[in-house]
TrEMBL record:
The keyword Metal-binding does not apply. This is ATP-binding protein. Pfam families: SLFN_AlbA_2 (PF04326). PANTHER family: GLPR-RELATED TRANSCRIPTIONAL REPRESSOR, SCHLAFEN ALBA-2 DOMAIN-CONTAINING PROTEIN. Keywords: ATP-binding, Nucleotide-binding. It comes from the Bacteria. It comes from Thermophilibacter gallinarum. Residues 34-148 form the Schlafen AlbA-2 domain. One of its GO terms (molecular function) is ATP binding.
Length: 423
């Protein structure tokens, strides 16, 4: 996206990196399709802000700078408000614009007098237009905003439909895994899809890719895990263990140039000896009478899922990304009928009364959640992946039944240990 600010090498600056010394760069720029100036911050400007923000979000994004004259481009600092400008403008847009447009706000203080400064608002091109300000669909028309025509409205709705289709297609990305497990049956996998919104889908530069790899290697190192990187045609595949061949299955993170991500985690199947003991125990409980059932280690699989998702949390922190920029969904592949098993006496008492826990549906793809909806401000990939994996496999999360609560506590408490060989 266009930026009116450049660093010493001429590269576009992010809003977070803009300083007071960068403001003179605006003297060489005119208001236009992606840039608008306001000399003052007054009641008239307040009324116009939702319209301007919506018009940028409906177009190609843009920058609103308050405290710069629109005729001479001179810096005219405005007084700092008691409340943060981000909160003020955020509240204006919440009251007047629907849906919520993607934007960020920064008050750049005058070093000589921090009671005044310039307000810089950076608006992203929206993913799901039209953005409606006080009942009107505003778009950019040259250097101003105006109501959209019929053709423009059709284009805006088409863009929103196309973006939803892109997200759905992203949810079908597949990292190569051997088709069968050691028993010759389809390999059970947990997939977590994290699609980054509002990004340019063009290929990332070599420098950007190198920075992404450095951050991911650092995230792996913080978790005391090695990081093995391989290249796909449009992504990177990162694993904690170097596969010895195509039949060797390990957890994988697929990382794209726009920093969308897919996490794939194979379930931990019981080895032959432990499976035999589990089958014998279930027969004692009157639960199991055939040899064909597939059992996974509930606690070890949750450890593996949570550990790998933690790497994603570390990565976004290192990169300074907000989870609110993502849409998230998950899928359980080849999990239908898979039985959760635990050696915990609490688990065995529970299943003796209520039956085994298993993934009871064949369609295990979740709906897409958009993390900028205000309901996911505390989102963490680790908690989301762990809880939804267990929930999809039949664990009664959120139940008010004390027996259900005791089961959840028992399984979660026995899955908190870390084993480096479970990735």
């Amino acid at each position: 996206m266009f930026s009116p600010f450049r660093d010493a090498s001429g590269a576009p600056k992010r809003l977070a990196d803009v300083t007071w010394d960068d403001l003179p760069q605006l003297a060489d720029l005119d208001e236009g399709f992606v840039l608008e100036f306001k000399r003052e911050y007054n009641a008239s400007v307040q009324r116009k802000i939702p319209k301007i923000v919506a018009s940028f979000a409906n177009s190609r994004g843009g920058w609103l700078v308050i405290g710069v004259a629109d005729d001479t481009h001179a810096v005219c600092p405005v007084p700092r408000q008691q409340a943060d400008f981000g909160q003020i403008i955020g509240e204006l847009c919440r009251r007047h614009v629907s849906p919520a447009p993607p934007f960020d706000v920064r008050f750049v203080a005058d070093p000589a007098d921090d009671t005044r400064g310039v307000v810089v608002v950076r608006v992203e091109e929206g993913d799901f237009p039209p953005y409606i300000a006080d009942g009107v669909v505003e778009i950019r028309e040259g250097s101003t905003s105006g109501p959209a025509t019929g053709a423009a409205l059709v284009e805006l709705y088409g863009k929103a439909t196309g973006r939803r289709r892109e997200i759905a297609e992203f949810g079908h990305r597949t990292v190569f895994y051997p088709e069968t497990d050691a028993y010759g049956r389809p390999l059970p996998l947990f997939d977590l899809y994290l699609y980054r919104m509002g990004r340019d889908r063009d290929a990332a530069s070599r420098e950007e890719v190198a920075e992404h790899v450095r951050a991911m290697r650092s995230a792996f190192a913080q978790q005391r895990a090695t990081c093995h990187v391989s290249h796909a045609h449009d992504s990177l595949i990162l694993r904690t263990t170097l596969p010895t061949g195509p039949g060797d299955a390990h957890s994988a993170i697929e990382l794209f140039g726009d920093e969308s991500m897919k996490l794939t985690v194979p379930a931990v199947l019981l080895d032959a000896a432990r499976r035999e003991r589990a089958v014998a125990r279930m027969r004692e409980l009157g639960l199991f009478s055939a040899e064909e059932g597939r059992l996974i280690d509930a606690c070890a699989t949750l450890r593996r899922v949570s550990r790998m998702a933690s790497l994603l949390d570390r990565y976004v922190r290192l990169r300074g990304i907000a989870w609110q920029e993502y849409a998230v969904s998950y899928e359980l592949e080849n999990m239908a009928g898979i039985i959760l098993w635990s050696d915990s006496p609490v688990y065995q008492d529970y299943v003796a009364e209520k039956g085994v826990l298993s993934c009871g549906t064949t369609d295990c793809r979740s709906r897409v959640r958009y993390l900028d909806d205000g309901a996911h401000d505390s989102f963490r990939a680790r908690q989301f992946a762990g809880s939804h994996f267990f929930e999809a496999c039949g664990l009664p999360l959120g139940s008010q039944d004390p027996r259900d609560e005791a089961l959840v506590d028992a399984l979660l408490s026995t899955s908190t240990g870390r084993r480096r060989d479970e990735a």
